[in-house]
Design brief:
Keywords: Methyltransferase, Nucleus, Ribosome biogenesis, RNA-binding, rRNA processing, rRNA-binding, S-adenosyl-L-methionine, Transferase. Belongs to the class IV-like SAM-binding methyltransferase superfamily. RNA methyltransferase NEP1 family. It is found in: Nucleus, Nucleolus. GO terms for molecular function: rRNA (pseudouridine) methyltransferase activity; rRNA binding. About 30% of the residues lie in helices and about 25% in strands. By secondary structure, the protein is an alpha/beta fold. The protein has one domain: Alpha/beta knot (3-Layer(aba) Sandwich), CATH 3.40.1280. An 8-stranded mixed beta sheet has the order 6-7-5-4-1-9-8-10. A hairpin with a 6-residue loop joins strand 6 and strand 7. The two termini are about 10 Å apart.
Amino acid sequence: MSASKEDVKRRQVIVILEQAALETVKTSKGYQLLNCDDHKGIHKKLNREASQSRPDILHQELMALLDSPLNKAGYLKATKGVLVEVSSQMRVPRTYKRFAGLMVQLLHTLKIRSSDGNHTLLNVIKNPVTKHLPANCKKYALTRTGTLVNPWEWVESLPKDEPVVFIFGAMAHGHISKENCNYLDDTISISEYPMSGAQAICRLLNGFERHWGIL
């Protein structure tokens, strides 16, 4: 049996992308999104590891999220503490260059609206992120060090009609834990093998799509 649209609406899936690299720098070409490929000299001046500036990971994860048939809410939390609400109506630019330009615009204007002006697609909001989550919802971080579960079977075991929050890391190194993400309730792993954040997102959301009969 397939879930009705009303059932799916009640079973809200919220995704948080933690520790995303979102920072602008002023260059001779204007403001740009700081990244490891184009700004090695800037990283050297700042005495910072260039490998930490990977906004391309966020780009990949947002495409995986918003290209999914599953309709969901989302938030992204940058390493600099910026919290952004992401509308499910947002269409992520296909190329990194256009994505980077959009993120620079967002960080300077704090809001991105649809071309017709009727919808807010990206919106910088106040921390903490827990203030914007449903009361008493369970919050799971996906990490290699979490309890290994079969995503298709595990999704079926979740309580019905209750929203659930999933936290994915959007950084190049390290993993999400209670030490760097104090609001999570539990950690899970959905594969015995290493995988990118974008692949983990696709794998988990596919479990919900299969369970709810979303084609």
